[in-house]
């Protein structure tokens, strides 16, 4: 079993799409093992997206991710990282496949409703950013 981090971004929370996003993941067979709602400070958003610090979209991304509440969740399942990314769809909703979260719910390339880890290394780092070991153990059944 593999674990990955997914986020419902501020646009998804503001538009009351949390349950809809969770439905996509659960119907695809991924299990939610930890979840919380929080609001990132600008500094926390910068730390979380530090891998993008040299890219032109870094400032607008961190402004956006600190603009309102988000929902962080840990998903578990077989090939959870690649399955989560497949369920989310391409970063740009206009290019995402039909039936994906971003095609169905995303507004634009930045306000695309969800974030998901892209590798086992980033999943481990991103899960640890939002969840303590105790919170993760609580998700075990």
TrEMBL record:
Record's keyword annotation contains Cytoplasm: yes
Coiled-coil annotated spans: none
Residues in Nucleoside diphosphate kinase-like domain copies: 1-138
Annotated ATP binding sites: 9, 57, 85, 91, 102, 112
UniProt key word ATP-binding: yes
GO CC terms of this entry: cytoplasm
Single Gene Ontology BP annotation: GTP biosynthetic process
Enzyme class, first EC level, given as a word: transferase
CDD domains recorded: NDPk_I
Reaction(s) this enzyme catalyzes, per UniProt: a 2'-deoxyribonucleoside 5'-diphosphate + ATP = a 2'-deoxyribonucleoside 5'-triphosphate + ADP; a ribonucleoside 5'-diphosphate + ATP = a ribonucleoside 5'-triphosphate + ADP
Its EC number(s): 2.7.4.6
Keyword entries, A-Z: ATP-binding, Cytoplasm, Kinase, Magnesium, Metal-binding, Nucleotide metabolism, Nucleotide-binding, Phosphoprotein, Transferase
Superkingdom of the source species: Bacteria
Gene3D superfamilies with a match to the protein in the record: Nucleoside diphosphate kinase-like domain (3.30.70.141)
Residues annotated as the enzyme's active site: 115 (pros-phosphohistidine intermediate)
Main location, first listed in the record: cytoplasm
Role of this protein: Major role in the synthesis of nucleoside triphosphates other than ATP. The ATP gamma phosphate is transferred to the NDP beta phosphate via a ping-pong mechanism, using a phosphorylated active-site intermediate.
HAMAP family associated with the record: NDP_kinase
Quaternary structure and interacting proteins, as annotated: Homotetramer.
Family of the protein in this entry: Belongs to the NDK family.
This protein's name: Nucleoside diphosphate kinase
Organism: Thermosulfurimonas dismutans
Lineage of the species this protein comes from: Bacteria, Pseudomonadati, Thermodesulfobacteriota, Thermodesulfobacteria, Thermodesulfobacteriales
């Amino acid at each position: 079993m593999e674990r990955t981090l997914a986020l419902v971004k501020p646009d998804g929370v503001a538009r009351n799409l949390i349950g809809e996003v969770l439905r996509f993941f659960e119907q695809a067979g991924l299990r939610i093992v930890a979840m919380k709602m929080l609001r990132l400070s600008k500094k926390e958003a910068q730390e979380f997206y530090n891998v993008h610090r040299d890219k032109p979209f870094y400032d607008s991304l961190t402004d956006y991710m600190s603009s309102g509440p988000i929902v962080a969740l840990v998903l578990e399942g077989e090939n959870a990282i690649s399955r989560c990314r497949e369920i989310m769809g391409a970063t740009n909703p206009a290019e995402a496949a039909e039936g994906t979260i971003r095609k169905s719910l995303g507004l634009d390339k930045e306000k695309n409703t969800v974030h998901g880890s892209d590798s086992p290394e980033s999943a481990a780092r991103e899960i640890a950013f939002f969840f303590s070991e105790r919170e993760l153990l609580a998700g075990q059944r």
